[in-house]
Write a structure and sequence with these properties.
One of its GO terms (molecular function) is ATP binding. Keywords: ATP-binding, Membrane, Nucleotide-binding, Transmembrane, Transmembrane helix. It is a single chain. The chain is of the alpha/beta class. The strands form 3 sheets. It has a 6-stranded mixed β-sheet, sandwiched between helices. The chain contains 19 helices and 12 strands.
Length: about 575
């Protein structure tokens, strides 16, 4: 995607959308040009068939010349067979162009989503992303698909116009003057149509986001009795979307009727004029039949030309939205010249708070304010820019791939995806059964696997909705342990489990991570008691450290946070 010229970040103007469509077209230019050439051959061949039919009537039937009738009949058959073959190949090219445009857009947006990471949900609504992956790719693919038929239709209209002008100037002028009139009428309708379509598309994205939020928070809504309120809001927004769809449909219906009415007027007018000319002897019977065939055939190309305008405009609107997403920049940028960092265990330091995570040990971080612990985890995982260092090298000077490979931050916002449980716990398919079983035991999650039909091969529903909050938390911990990163940062990994399960996890976590560096952000006494080293953070700074029981005796603020007792209470 680096070859795509883009405007300033966050800006998606008309020019950038045009460049994006041209960039897509350039990637598939052989099939695009091939489809357009085949479209010209196919449509021009169809345009010539009425002329051949007219010649067969005049030279064969009217003149009672059997040889001429056979010759023109064979030529007509040849044109028909050729059109069938060329039409099939053209359709294959057009389908390839549609698929290439649509799914190349999917690849680009998926890669961009991966690059943006945690930045994406902050800058773009869920519904907007879903709409890009559904509606917008269809419109972009359609804009590339229509080019072959549109080019063929244009050449067919030009061919018929030339034939009519050669045979009868008045009939040719009807087409020459009528086509611009039709295009003008369509252009007048297209502009308000696409304004309404863009508004409808925005409303659709908003409603999709609302639906996603409701589904994600359904359990909470039920708990607080908010289902009726949110259902009413969704119903109101849904009705707004419906009214927007009706407004779009009104203009679409008018456009469709115009596409039928205007070519129909051509058909009636040319046939009527041709019949009058034939009665006066100015044209032959065969030419009259040809003119009728031309006008009937013209209905298709003329409608196709209006469809070209419609699809290209839709594709352009969708391209603007795609470019808008592609122009987003991650909060954390790759360094211009990444620095190499030594392999092996090294000290991880958060300079801002003064926290030093010692290699090969289980360190616990107890923060007076939970948001301080989250901020430190973000800085140490380089999800926020900071002066944090590994082996004394600032993380901002390391390649992001290196940081992600060596440091993993596992928090409670991580998602479970649909699919086999084994794949969910080991997405890279690198762990054997013994490793997975050991992680399940350490996270006290064996009961979850035993209860799931199919065990590790059983399927997980979307977002793991069949599991309780505590079960999901334990499965996320299993996934982190199976990954076995050099440095693992866990944010409140036991906040949703009961005390007995928490005690088992606390006892087993250290042995499961023996020899590896682990930082656990928690205020649970059960977990803190099992840590090799505990650091207490207050007001964003590390103010005390030692073993759990030492801090309980020496640091009243720590004791108050851990035991949930306010300072000054007995």
């Amino acid at each position: 995607m680096r070859s795509l010229p883009v405007p300033d970040p966050g800006v998606a103007d008309q020019r950038s959308a045009t460049r994006f469509l041209l960039w897509l077209a350039a990637r598939i230019w052989p099939t695009l040009v091939g489809g357009m050439v085949l479209g010209i051959v196919s449509f021009v061949g169809q345009a010539l068939m009425p002329a051949v039919l007219g010649k067969a009537i005049d030279a064969g039937l009217v003149a009672r010349n059997t040889d001429a009738l056979v010759r023109w009949g064979l030529l007509l058959l040849t044109l028909g067979i050729s059109q069938a073959i060329v039409g099939i190949v053209r359709h294959r090219f057009a389908s390839f162009n549609w698929l290439a445009g649509a799914y190349r857009t999917v690849q680009l947006t998926a890669d961009q989503a991966n690059r943006l990471g945690a930045t994406l949900p902050k800058q773009l609504a869920t519904g907007e992303v879903v709409s890009i992956g559904t509606a917008d790719i269809n419109h972009i693919g359609g804009a590339l698909d229509i080019l072959s038929r549109g080019t063929g239709s244009l050449f067919a209209v030009l061919t018929i116009t030339a034939i009519l002008l050669t045979t009868s100037v008045p009939l040719g002028l009807v087409v020459v003057l009528g086509v611009p009139v039709l295009m003008t009428v369509v252009a007048v309708l297209i502009r308000p149509l696409h304004r309404r379509q863009e508004t409808y598309r925005d409303q659709q994205a908003t409603l999709t986001t609302r639906a996603s939020d409701i589904v994600a928070g359904l359990r909470v809504l039920r708990g607080v009795g908010g289902e009726a309120v949110f259902a009413a809001r969704y119903r109101a927004e849904s009705q707004t979307l419906r009214h927007g769809g009706v407004r779009v449909a009104r203009v679409e219906a008018l456009l469709e009727s115009t596409q039928i009415l205007m070519p129909g007027i051509f058909l009636v007018l040319v046939t009527w004029l041709g019949a009058r000319f034939a009665l006066r002897g100015e044209i032959t019977v065969g030419q009259l039949v040809s003119f009728y065939g031309y006008t009937v055939f013209l209905i298709g190309p003329l409608r196709m030309l209006t469809e070209v305008i419609d699809r290209l405009t839709r594709g352009h609107v969708s391209a603007r939205r795609v470019v808008g997403m592609l122009n987003l920049r991650p909060e954390i940028e790759e360094p211009a010249r990444p620095v190499q960092v030594p392999e092996g265990a090294g000290e991880l330091v958060d300079v801002e708070s003064g926290l030093a995570v010692r290699p090969g040990r289980l360190t616990a971080l107890a923060a007076a304010a939970p948001e301080d612990a989250v901020a430190i985890a973000d800085r140490l995982g380089r999800y926020a820019d900071s002066e944090a260092t590994l082996h004394g090298v600032p993380l901002r000077e390391l390649a992001l791939g290196t940081v992600r490979r060596r440091i993993m931050v596992a928090d409670n916002d991580a998602r479970l995806f649909s699919g086999p449980l084994r794949t969910e716990l080991d997405p890279h398919d690198r762990a054997d059964d013994a490793t997975i079983d050991a992680a399940l035991v350490a996270a006290s999650a064996m009961d979850i696997v035993e209860a799931l039909p199919g065990g590790l091969d059983g399927r997980v529903a979307e977002r793991g909705r069949e599991f309780s909050g505590g079960q999901q938390q334990r499965l996320r911990l299993v996934r982190a342990l199976v990954a076995d990163p050099e440095i693992l940062i866990l944010v409140e990994p036991t906040s949703a489990v009961d005390a007995h399960t928490e005690a088992r996890i606390a006892r087993r976590l250290g042995p499961a991570r023996r020899g590896r560096t682990t930082l656990v952000c928690t205020t649970s006494p059960l977990v803190l008691d099992q840590a090799d080293h505990v650091v207490f953070v207050s007001d964003g700074k590390a103010v005390a450290e030692g073993r759990h029981h030492e801090l309980l005796d020496s640091e009243p603020r720590y004791a108050a946070v851990v035991t949930r007792v306010e300072e000054g209470e007995a």
